UniProtKB/TrEMBL annotation:
Family (UniProt): Belongs to the TORC family.
Protein known as: Transducer of regulated CREB activity N-terminal domain-containing protein
Domain of life: Eukaryota
GO BP term (any one): protein homotetramerization
Subcellular location: Cytoplasm; Nucleus
Species this protein is from: Sinocyclocheilus rhinocerous
Residue ranges constituting the Transducer of regulated CREB activity N-terminal domain according to the UniProt record: 20-55
Lineage: Eukaryota, Metazoa, Chordata, Craniata, Vertebrata
InterPro entries given in the database record: TORC, TORC_N
Length: 61
């Protein structure tokens, strides 16, 4: 048996896990902001794709 998974997870000490609510809420805020940015980028790509498809369909008609 290997103990390769033993190094995963938070480091031992007083600042591990959710022991500091301020840091935990900051992590949630960063995650929410990153998710919103990724969603906006995805929507922009999908809008570009949709407009490209509409342009091709319009030109064929």
């Amino acid at each position: 048996m290997s103990s390769a998974g033993a190094a995963c997870g938070p480091a031992p000490g007083p600042n591990h896990g959710a022991s500091n609510p301020r840091k935990f809420s900051e992590k949630i805020a960063l995650h929410t902001q990153r998710q919103a940015e990724e969603t906006a980028a995805f929507q922009e790509v999908m809008m570009d794709l949709s407009s490209t498809r509409l342009t091709k369909i319009t030109r064929r008609s």
